[in-house]
Design a protein that fits this description.
By secondary structure, this protein is α+β, with helices and mostly antiparallel strands. The protein is built from 5 helices and 6 strands; from the N terminus they run βαααβαββαββ. Helix 1 packs across helix 3 and helix 2 packs across helix 3.
Amino acid sequence: MSRKVTLDEKDIKILNILQYNCRLSAKEIAQEIGSPTTTVYAKIKRMEKLGIIKGYNALINPKAIGKGATAFILASFAYSNPKLETLLSQREVAKEIASFPEVQEVHIISGDWDLLIKVRAEDVESIGRFVIDKLRTVKGIEKTLTCMVFDSTKETLNVDIPNVKELIVRQGKSRK
């Protein structure tokens, strides 16, 4: 179900502040934007309920915990395969891949490939084992192409928030 939601200037300021430091209290945010603490708290709760704010996370340095290797993997989906009794849907395959702990992101994409997968692991060999021993054994995966990351110039979860007046929010899809 979709519904139009109006965000005012203070909502947008709150979202931008939370993206960069979600550990700030409602009182600290209120001081930053010049609003009462109760107003800020109510606005945050409203945006959580609407699914605009999906959750709060600590950003971990992967290298610091021994997960210094990153790869993006393109995968193609077998739309028909006589070896499979029942063919899984592309969404089911994506969900299965998403369940692997090495996987950070799975996207269904357009073009010559069907899925884009972001993987983090200890080293190149670990990523190779993931591709050979896990990913390629998923029913419905036809072929893969692994692109190793040498260096990352920018990596963020932040979203550029324009000064929008109205958003279309799909309810029932938020997760915490």
